[in-house]
Amino acid sequence: MAIIKWDPFGDIATLQDRINKLFEDSFPQQLADGETLPSCAWTPHTDIYENDSGFFVAVDLPGVKKEDVTVEVKNNVMTISGKRSEDPECQTTNYYRRERICGKFYRTFSLHAMIAPADIKATFKNGVLIIEMPRPAADPPRQISVDIE
C-alpha cells in the first residue's frame, strides 16, 4: 500500500465544493423570463472567447455522444444540455475510487446583442463542442439629408 502525504487544505477545498454544490442544488436557478432551470448531475468546463469573426463557446464533453447534446437559443439565452450515459459494465463493478460523473448536464449563457442567432453553428469533435456565433453583417454607413426649417 502506498503512503500518501496528507494535505490539510485539500479537505477544506473539497468541503467548500460540496457546500457550494449543496446550495446550488437546493435553490433552483431561474432565467430572466422566470423559467426554472432543471437540476443536473454535473457542469462541463466551458471557455468563451472572441475574435474578429465573432464569439465562440468551447465546452469539454468527454464521453458524451453527439446525439446526446442539445444547443438551443431562446430570448437571447443559449442553453447547452445533454447527458453522459453510464457504461452498463460500471454498474457491476466494485470501485475503490470513483470521480467521473454520469448523468445530465445543463449550462446557460446570455448572448451578446451583436450576434446573429440564425447563423450560429456548432461542431463536435474529440469530446469538445465548439459553438461559433458570428457577428451580423454590418450595414454600410449611410448619409441622410435632414431638411432644416
From TrEMBL:
- Which Pfam families does the UniProt entry name for this protein? HSP20 (PF00011)
Query: What's the domain of life for this entry?
Result: Bacteria
Question: In this protein, which residues make up the domain named SHSP?
Answer: 36-149
Q: Which family does it belong to?
A: Belongs to the small heat shock protein (HSP20) family.
Q: Which InterPro entries does this one have?
A: A-crystallin/Hsp20_dom (IPR002068), HSP20-like_chaperone (IPR008978), Small_HSP (IPR031107)
Recorded protein name is Hsp20/alpha crystallin family protein
